Amino acid sequence: MVIKKTHKKAVFLKHNFNGWSFGTLLFALILIGPFGALCFTAVGDSEGLWLHLIKTVFPRYVANTFWLMFGVSIISLIFGISTGWVIARRKFPGVRILEWALLLPATVPAYIIAYTYTDLFEFAGPIQGYLREFFGWTSAKDYWFPEIRSIGGAILVMASVLYPYIYIMARTAFRLTPASYLEVAELNNRNSLLSVDLPLARPAIIAGLALVLMEVLSDFGTVEYFAVETLTLGIFNIWLGMNNLVAAAQIAVLAFVFILTLLIIEKSARKRQRFTDASRSGSPLPEKSVKSSKAFLYIFICLLPIILGFVIPVSVLLNFIFQGLSITNVEMLKLATLNSLSVALGASIIVVFLATIMVLVNHYQKHPLINGLTKVSVMGYAFPGAILAIGVVMFAGATDKTFQLICEEIFGFSSNGFLIGSVWLLIFAFVVRFQAIGHGALISGVERLSPNIMSASLVLGRSFSKSMALLAPPLLRKSMLAGGILVFVDVMKELPMTLLLRPFNYETLSTYVYQFAKDEMLEESALAALTIVLVGLIPVILMNALQRR
Q: Which CATH architecture has domain 57-316?
C-alpha cells in the first residue's frame, strides 16, 4: 500500500511538473516580485517621517479618502441602480440605444472629465461668464457658485464615469429575476423593486460597488488637479516631494489592506450571487411597455449620467478642436501617440502570451503550488498604480543589481542594468498591473472548451507543447484578442504609474494631457484627450456585445 501511494505521488509530480510547469512557476514568481518588494520596503526605517505623518497629514489623507469613497458610492449607486432597473424592466422609445450609451462614460478617464469640468464651471469659464452677463453681476462677491475644484467636485466627476460598473452588474441581475417572484410581490401589494429586485440583486451590486471603490482609491489625476489630499496623492507627495520611499511604502501597505478588504467583500458577494442565481426558477419577466409621460421620465433618468459623464466632456474637447486650439505642437503629439501605442501594444502582447501559457498549464496540469502562485500573481489589478509603482521600482532595482553582479562575476564585464530608467520598466509595470485582465479573458475561453480536446491531441501522439501550439491560437483566438484589447486600452489611459516610472522626457498621451492641463492649457491637450476616449470605445463595444449574447 505504501509503495502504491509513493508510486502515485511520483507519477503525479512527473506529470504535473515539467518544463512548462517550471516556466509558469517562474512567470508567477516574477509577477509576484513587486508585491514582496513593496512589503519588504514598508518594514524599513522611514527616519521618523512615518510618526510625523501620523501626527500631521495622515489623518487628513484617511478622512478625505473616506469621504470621497462615500460620496462616489452614493451617486454611483443612484445612477447605476436606477438606470439598470429602467433598462431591464421598461420598454420605451430609444431604450436599446440608451442601453449601449450608458456604457459610454466608462470610456472617459476621470482626470479628463476633471479638466473639462474645470474649464466649463470655473470663474473664468463660459457658465459663470454667462450668468454674470445675464444677471449683471460684476464680481464673485455678487453671487455664490459651487467650487468645482473641491471634494464635492471630485465626487461628481468620479461618479459620472464609474457608475457603469454598478449599472452593468445591476442590469444583468434584474434581468435574471424570475417573473414568478415579481408576481407574488404584486399579489401581496408589495413594491417589487424594494422587496424583490434589490434583495436579489444586492450581491451583484456590492460586487460592482467594490470595483468602483477600488477605482476611487487608485485615482490620482482628479484628486491632484482638485487638490484633494487622499492616500494616493499622499504617496506621490511623500515619494517625490519628501524623497522618502519607505514612508510612501508604509502608506501604500495600509491602503492595500483596505483594498484587500474590498476584494474579500467582492468575492463573497460573487459567491452569494452564484448561489442566488442557482436557486432561482422560472423565466425572467418581460420588459413592460410604458406610456409617453413615463417614457420621458425614464429617458431623463438614463440621459442624465450620459450627459454628465460623456456628452459634456466630449463636447468641450470637440469645441477646442473645432476652434483650432489643439493643434499647436504636432511633433510632440505624434511622439506621445507613438509612445502610447508602443507601450500599450508591447504590454498587451506580453500579457496575452503569459496568460495563455499560465492558464493552459494550470488548466491541464493542475499543479497545486503553481495554481496558488498564479492566483497571487494576478492581484496587480487590485493595487492602485501609485502603490504598485513602489514595489516595481524596488523589485527592478534588485533585479538590475543582480544582473550587474552576474555580468561582473561570471562574464567579466560591467553593466548598468536594463530596467531602471528605461521604457522596459514601464512595460513591466503594466504587465504586472493588468495581468489579471488577460488572465480572466483566457480563463473564460478555456472553460468553454471541451475537456477532451487536449486528451485527444495527446492520444494522437502530439506532445503537450505541440498540442498547445496547434490548439491555442485557433480555439482561443477570440479570448486572446479580447484580453489584449482590454489591456491595450487600460494602458493607454493609465496615468499614475506612467508619471512615476516613465523614462526622462518620455511622454505618452495620458502624461501629455496631464502636463498641459496642469499648466492650465487644456486646449493643447484636447486632441490627445479625445484620442484616449475614442480608444476607450473599443472595450465598451465588446462589453455590450457580450452582454447581449
A: Orthogonal Bundle (1.10)
Given a contact cutoff of 8 angstroms between Cβ atoms, the answer to whether 372 and 459 are in contact is no
pLDDT tens for each residue of 406-424: 887 777 677 677 788 899 9
CA angle 192, 194, 200 (to 5 degrees): 85
Report how far residue 48's alpha carbon sits from residue 208's, in angstroms, rounded to the nearest whole number.
39
Cα 501 from Cα 417, distance rounded (Å) = 16
- C-alpha–C-alpha distance, residues 429 and 389, integer Å: 7
Backbone phi and psi for residue 284, each to the nearest 5 degrees, phi listed first? -65, 155
Contacts with 144 (C-beta within 8 Å, 6 or more apart), sequence order? none
Reported confidence tier of residue 272, pLDDT bands at 50, 70, 90: low
**Closest-CA residue to 216 (of 146, 149, 157):** 157
User: Residue 439: which of 380, 506, 526, 516 has the closest Cα?
Assistant: 380
Q: What number of residues does the chain have?
A: 549
H-type helices in 448-495, by residue range?
Answer: 452-459, 464-475, 477-493
Buried b / exposed e across 408-437, counting CB within 10 Å, b at 16+? Answer: eeeeeeeeebebbbbbebbbbbbbbbbbbb
CA–CA gap between residue 78 and residue 94 (Å, rounded): 21
Distant-in-sequence, close-in-space partners of 57: CB < 8 Å, separation ≥ 6: 229, 234
User: pLDDT by residue (tens digit) across 102-144?
Assistant: 989 988 899 999 999 998 998 888 898 888 888 888 887 888 8
pLDDT in tens, 165-208: 899 888 888 887 776 666 666 666 666 666 677 888 888 888 88
Taking the C-alpha atoms of residue 301 and residue 101, their distance in angstroms, rounded to an integer, is 13
Instruction: Write the pLDDT tens digit of every residue in 480-509.
Output: 888 888 889 889 989 889 998 999 889 999
Is 374 buried (19+), middle (13-18) or exposed (0-12) by CB count in 10 A? buried
The H or E element spanning position 91 is strand 90-91
Rounded distance, CA 2 to CA 84, Å?
A: 59
Report how far residue 1's alpha carbon sits from residue 163's, in angstroms, rounded to the nearest whole number.
59
Q: List all residues 6 or more positions away from 169 whose beta carbon is below 8 Å from its beta carbon.
A: 80, 84, 201, 204, 205, 207, 208
Q: What is the residue extent of each domain of the chain? A: 20-44+325-549, 57-316
Res 365: pLDDT: 77
pLDDT score recorded for residue 185 = 61
Query: Which fold would CATH assign to domain 20-44+325-549?
Result: MetI-like fold (1.10.3720)
Q: Please check whether the two domains, 20-44+325-549 and 57-316, share a CATH topology.
A: yes
pTM for the model? 0.82
